[in-house]
């Protein structure tokens, strides 16, 4: 099963390397990882999607908590409902005849055209992992020249936060 | 104005550091230059790995964080095995390394090594100091992190230019404020109540005492708990010495090299109280097969449920948890069970009879044990000698120090030096084999230089006994690379260092020489001729 963990850490050099070293040392599998600063510039949030069973994810949480620079670990999957999203940029092969077709798909899938060239279109799409994968599937027949995805970021639904 | 180097030394003074173990190099020189001007003693070791082990022996004997120092590059990488050894056994260390100039970091200059990166999985925490102003905070935090919660080594890497940079003034913080580090000390009272009720109804309960009990300094609490409840106690190798071997409630060491009756007892138990024991594979080889209900007490929440499922987890400092537990619990109706296991202990034959052709190491360890002072400190190395010592040395009021987790050969001698410097009035004896002796024999020079009267017993069997035994059992006796050839005459070698040495051919001689060794005011090395085919258990 996939678990989404929200990890608040001190915004210091070397913290990301400590977190990733922990994953490789303990043999935990990361599906995706996203890191960025929070509303407080001294604190960063790392969102990690872990693949494993309940026992493994419990160990991941405990081992993360042991890192001095980790302030708080919240298992969003276990906590209940949350919103999540990731961002993709994709460069699709398309000639002038196909251009409208691809733009139509983009519109329906809530993707934006961010670059147009003679033989390609670059789309930007933010959404859930499922949305992103659906869009990728629809674009594949045209030929995907290049694709980049961020890790998933997530927040709990409702007014509660990871700090409290 | 004050330089970074001077601040580093002032931080050590603020932490009441009295002794450091280190080996200098170019980029740590600014620090050394100020260290020399203080009353802090510096022990010049002969290799950085031993410096970490000496600091570890000091930390374990004194209960304070040990401090070791190395330069950048090879100095720092040599330190790693020592740090990893301390990390596995949860020993509080603060390691200070010099680093190349910060603007050169990453450019592969002479003696540059990314030591904070390399030590990521061997330290509790690490710092690469980039600003001179950060030095007081970093040192305050490092000492706090090393010694509190589950103790462990903390590394501070300080570039040369940061040591030489000037700060406005030196203000040492009163408290370390780390938002992500608040170790829980008090056990949850409901959990303790639940555990007490479970134990009161248990028919065959066992207390398993691990290294955490030693780190917590909870020896008296453990003895009181066992006495009040009447529950028999077993120990892991790291927990040896908490309860004296001849205590009525103490049964023996568990594990692959422990007492068979102690292991049998673990299998028959219906409730096991794990105290500061991380259920290492050498202690409990098949944790999934444990049938008993587990009460797991540990200060590190990550240890609970890691290797064995806990029915009642109690996170907290063992000393305070055991106090609460002893208050809470009533009598446990397990007299019959206690009698049964006590009988098993008494009926078990002692292994190893004194010999006339060789020194029988197990019989000798018992003799040595009976001759040593009650509060003596024994350090045991790694290999057969560790098992001979663990199973036959009776730690009464003293300590048994060994590299239990990492199993680092060469640990005993430097650890003994550190322990003796921490407790100069106590008897400190190290036991090693001829394999492990040669891994740290350079420290004989340190012993001689600082006149540290450590006593060392070398069990010379001309082989790497433990691995040879493994090859006998699993590889049809093919002794590949386990027979030591070309070894020096250890007695002459030790004498060349200006240290007294003697050779024992049999148990009678060994006993007489051990008496002389223990009576000696100076350092002394006793080499025992041991049969290479002596089993470890």
Concise structural overview:
Chain A has 164 residues and is α+β, with helices and mostly antiparallel strands.
Which key features would you list for this structure?
heterodimer, A: 164 residues, alpha+beta, Alpha-Beta Plaits, 2 domains, 5-stranded antiparallel beta sheet, 5 helices, B: alpha/beta, Rossmann fold, 3 domains
Describe this structure in words.
The complex is a heterodimer of chains A (164) and B (537). Chain A is an alpha+beta fold and 164 residues long. Chain A folds into two domains: 2-80, ACT domain (Alpha-Beta Plaits); 83-153, 2-Layer Sandwich (Alpha-Beta Plaits), CATH 3.30.70. Chain A is built from five helices and nine strands. In chain A, the strands form two sheets. In chain A, strands 5, 6, 7, 8 and 9 form a five-stranded antiparallel β-sheet that branches. The radius of gyration of chain A is 19 Å and the shape is elongated. The two termini of chain A are 26 Å apart. Chain B is α/β, with parallel strands linked by helices and 537 residues long. Chain B has three domains: 2-167, Thiamin diphosphate (ThDP)-binding fold, Pyr/PP domains (Rossmann fold); 189-347, 3-Layer(aba) Sandwich (Rossmann fold), CATH 3.40.50.1220; 361-529, Thiamin diphosphate (ThDP)-binding fold, Pyr/PP domains (Rossmann fold, 3-Layer(aba) Sandwich). In chain B, the strands form four sheets. In chain B, strands 3-2-4-5-7-6 form a six-stranded parallel β-sheet, with helices on both faces. In chain B, helix 6 links the parallel strand 6 (125-128) and strand 7. In chain B, helix 1 (4-14) packs parallel to helix 6 (135-147) and helix 10 runs parallel beside helix 12. Chain B is globular, with a radius of gyration of 24 Å. The termini of chain B are far apart. The mean pLDDT of chain B is 96. Classes of the chains: A alpha+beta (164), B alpha/beta (537). Chain A binds chain B through residues 9-10, 13-14, 17-18, 21-22, 25, 55, 58-59, 62-63, 65-72, and chain B through 116-117, 120-121, 124-126, 128, 130, 145, 178-181, 300-302, 305-306.
């Amino acid at each position: 099963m996939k678990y989404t963990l929200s990890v608040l850490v001190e915004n210091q050099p070397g913290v990301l390397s400590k977190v990733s070293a922990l994953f490789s040392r303990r043999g935990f599998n990361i599906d995706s990882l996203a890191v960025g600063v929070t509303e407080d510039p001294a604190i960063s949030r790392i969102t990690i999607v872990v693949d494993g069973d309940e026992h493994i994810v419990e160990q991941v949480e405990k081992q993360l908590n042991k890192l001095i620079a980790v302030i708080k670990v919240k298992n969003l999957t276990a906590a209940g409902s949350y919103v999540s999203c990731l961002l993709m940029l994709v460069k699709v092969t398309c000639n002038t005849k196909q251009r409208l077709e691809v733009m139509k798909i983009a519109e329906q899938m809530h993707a934006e055209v961010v670059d147009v060239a003679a033989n390609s279109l670059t789309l930007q799409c933010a959404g859930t992992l499922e949305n992103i994968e659906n869009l990728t599937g629809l674009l594949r027949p045209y030929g995907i020249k290049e694709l980049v995805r961020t890790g998933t970021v997530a927040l709990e639904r409702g007014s509660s936060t990871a700090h409290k | 104005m004050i330089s970074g180097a001077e601040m580093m030394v002032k931080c050590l003074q603020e932490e009441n550091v009295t002794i450091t173990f280190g080996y200098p190099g170019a980029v740590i020189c600014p620090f050394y230059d100020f260290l020399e001007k203080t009353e802090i003693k510096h022990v010049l070791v002969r290799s950085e790995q031993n410096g970490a082990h000496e600091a570890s022996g000091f930390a374990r004997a004194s209960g304070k964080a040990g401090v070791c120092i190395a330069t950048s590059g090879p100095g720092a990488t040599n330190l790693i095995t020592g740090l990893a050894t301390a990390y596995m056994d949860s020993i509080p260390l603060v390691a200070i390394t010099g680093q190349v100039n910060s603007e050169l970091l990453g450019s592969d200059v002479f003696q540059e090594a990314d030591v904070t990166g390399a030590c990521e999985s061997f330290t509790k925490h690490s710092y690469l100091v980039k600003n001179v102003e950060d030095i007081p905070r970093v040192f305050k935090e490092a000492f706090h992190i090393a010694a509190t919660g589950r103790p462990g080594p903390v590394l501070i890497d300080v570039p040369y230019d940061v040591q030489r940079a000037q700060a406005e003034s030196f203000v040492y913080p009163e408290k370390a404020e780390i938002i992500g580090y608040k170790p829980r000390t008090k056990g949850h009272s409901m959990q303790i109540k639940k555990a007490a009720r479970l134990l009161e109804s248990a028919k065959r309960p066992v207390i398993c005492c691990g290294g955490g009990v030693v780190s917590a300094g909870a020896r008296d609490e453990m003895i009181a708990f066992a006495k009040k409840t009447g529950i028999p106690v077993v120990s892991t190798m790291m927990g040896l010495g908490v309860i004296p071997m001849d205590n009525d409630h103490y049964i023996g060491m568990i594990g692959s090299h422990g007492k068979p009756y102690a292991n049998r007892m673990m299998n028959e138990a219906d409730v096991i109280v794990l105290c500061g024991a991380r259920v290492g594979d050498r202690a409990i080889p098949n944790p999934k097969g444990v049938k008993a209900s587990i009460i797991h007490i540990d200060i590190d929440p990550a240890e609970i449920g890691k290797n064995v499922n806990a029915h009642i987890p109690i996170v907290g400092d063992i000393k305070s948890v055991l106090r609460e537990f002893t208050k809470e619990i009533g009598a446990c109706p397990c007299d019959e069970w206690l009698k049964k296991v006590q009988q098993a202990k008494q009926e078990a034959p002692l292994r190893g009879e004194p010999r006339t052709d060789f020194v029988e190491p197990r019989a000798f360890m018992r003799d040595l044990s009976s001759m040593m002072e009650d509060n003596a400190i024994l350090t045991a190395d790694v290999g057969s000698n560790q098992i001979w010592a663990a199973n036959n040395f009776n730690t009464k009021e003293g300590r048994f120090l060994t590299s239990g987790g990492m199993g680092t050969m060469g640990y005993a001698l430097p650890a003994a030096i550190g322990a003796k410097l921490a407790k100069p009035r106590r008897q400190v004896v190290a036991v090693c084999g001829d394999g492990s002796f040669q891994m740290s024999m350079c420290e004989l020079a340190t012993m001689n230089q600082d006149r540290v009267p450590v006593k060392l017993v070398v069990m010379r069997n001309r082989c790497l006994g433990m691995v040879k035994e493994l090859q006998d059992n699993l590889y049809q006796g093919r002794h590949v690379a386990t027979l030591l050839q070309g070894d020096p005459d250890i007695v002459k070698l030790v004498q060349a260092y200006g240290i007294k040495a003697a050779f024992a051919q049999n148990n009678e001689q060994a006993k007489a020489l051990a008496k002389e060794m223990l009576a000696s005011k100076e350092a002394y090395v006793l080499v025992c001729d041991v049969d290479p085919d002596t089993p470890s258990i």
